[in-house]
Inverse folding.
């Protein structure tokens, strides 16, 4: 037991404080020489971004790095990590200009598309409307709420009906 505590203490004390230069170097590992994605580097880079934010929560760029981590996690369909990062973004950086975009990604790509949890998606969309009524995303959020749960076929049918009505309406003028 004492050995485990000592080992943990050495690891914790020896943890290097990351700099933005470290993050840029980590970012450079995301792509192979042939410009394909280095999938093995993705979780490492995301973890470094999050570690930097934990170590430097008051840094002006902390929310930028956290948002980048969220974008990558969402793109990799990492439900758990995306949820953790989005929660931190909402809690610690509610006034950050990209927080509504992070919430929108979470609602649409994770809750709606990955988990098919329409209730959680609806709650997140409604929270964006309530907390960020001036966001440029409001029209997209409203459209997402209006179309929540509809199949692609239903959306196409509705679009075709709207077009037919518009064409019919144009001919009557």
């Amino acid at each position: 037991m004492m050995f485990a505590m000592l080992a943990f203490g050495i690891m914790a004390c020896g943890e290097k404080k990351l700099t933005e230069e470290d993050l840029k170097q980590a970012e450079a590992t995301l792509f192979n020489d042939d410009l394909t994605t280095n999938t093995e580097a993705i979780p490492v880079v995301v973890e470094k971004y999050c570690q930097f934010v934990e170590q430097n929560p008051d840094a002006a760029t902390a929310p930028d790095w956290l948002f980048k981590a969220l974008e990558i996690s969402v793109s990799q369909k990492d439900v758990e990590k995306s949820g953790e990062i989005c929660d931190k973004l909402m809690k610690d950086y509610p006034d950050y200009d990209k927080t509504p975009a992070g919430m929108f990604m979470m609602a649409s790509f994770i809750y709606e598309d990955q988990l098919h949890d329409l209730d959680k998606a609806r709650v997140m969309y409604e929270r964006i409307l309530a907390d960020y009524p001036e966001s440029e995303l409001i029209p997209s959020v409203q459209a997402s709420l209006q179309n929540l749960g509809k199949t692609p076929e239903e959306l196409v049918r509705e679009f075709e009906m709207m077009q037919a009505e518009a064409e019919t309406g144009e001919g009557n003028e």
